[in-house]
């Protein structure tokens, strides 16, 4: 990854410890199969000041999460026949700080458990309620900023492996 102006290393698009993410750099990846809704979500979030990336294919999503400063993913419940609960661990493996919001058409208890177990931040239901999604995205960025502040003020509380 890159370095900031003071030469500190930047990791996977997360801000340097203790610093807030500026609105212009808050980036959302919209991974949605339906072109109409993908465009609507993209236009909506771009209009309120977020940077927006779009992807319809899994390979494209992975590439964007690896190469770009993606903070929050809005993920359709299924992409290319792969369920969201199987994609979330992949995103978390690439960037453990990424927040994933799944937009689902299914509300079964089993799916909810699988999604929560995979590490999603929030599950919204279709049809999409833009205010609900906006609120979830704002909360996801607040969580990212809280975690970064916690890490900068309490680095001694974060367990680290000690060489034997």
Break the fold down into its secondary structure elements and pairings.
Layout: E1 27-31, H1 35-47, E2 51-55, H2 58-67, E3 72-76, E4 78-79, E5 82-83, H3 84-94, E6 99-104, H4 109-118, E7 122-125, H5 130-153
Parallel strand pairs: 1-2, 1-3, 3-6, 6-7
Antiparallel strand pairs: 4-5
Helix pairs in contact: 2-3, 3-4
Overview of the molecule:
By secondary structure, the chain is an alpha/beta fold. The protein has one domain (23-152): Response regulator (Rossmann fold), CATH 3.40.50. 41% of the residues lie in helices and 18% in strands. It has 5 helices and 7 strands. The chain has helices spanning 35-47, 58-67, 84-94, 109-118, 130-153; strands at 27-31, 51-55, 72-76, 78-79, 82-83, 99-104, 122-125. Strands 2-1-3-6-7 form a 5-stranded parallel beta sheet, sandwiched between helices. It has a two-stranded antiparallel ribbon with strand order 4-5. Strand 6 (99-104), helix 4 and strand 7 (122-125) form a beta-alpha-beta unit. Helix 2 (58-67) packs parallel to helix 3 (84-94) and helix 3 (84-94) runs parallel beside helix 4. The chain is globular, with a radius of gyration of 16 Å. The two termini are 29 Å apart.
């Amino acid at each position: 990854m890159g370095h900031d102006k003071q030469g500190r290393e930047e990791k996977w698009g997360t801000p340097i410890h203790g610093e807030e993410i500026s609105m212009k750099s808050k980036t959302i990846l919209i991974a949605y199969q339906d072109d109409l809704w993908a465009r609507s979500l993209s236009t909506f979030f771009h209009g309120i000041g977020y940077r927006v990336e779009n992807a319809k294919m899994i390979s494209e999503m992975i590439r964007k999460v690896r190469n770009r400063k993606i903070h929050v993913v809005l993920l359709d419940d299924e992409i290319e026949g792969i369920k969201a609960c199987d994609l979330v661990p992949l995103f978390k493996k690439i960037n453990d700080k990424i927040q994933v919001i799944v937009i689902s058409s299914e509300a079964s208890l089993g799916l909810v458990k699988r999604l929560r177990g995979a590490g999603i931040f929030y599950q919204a239901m279709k049809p999409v309620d833009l205010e609900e999604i906006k609120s979830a995205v704002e909360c996801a960025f607040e969580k990212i900023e809280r975690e970064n502040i916690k890490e900068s003020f309490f680095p001694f509380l974060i367990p680290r492996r000690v060489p034997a």
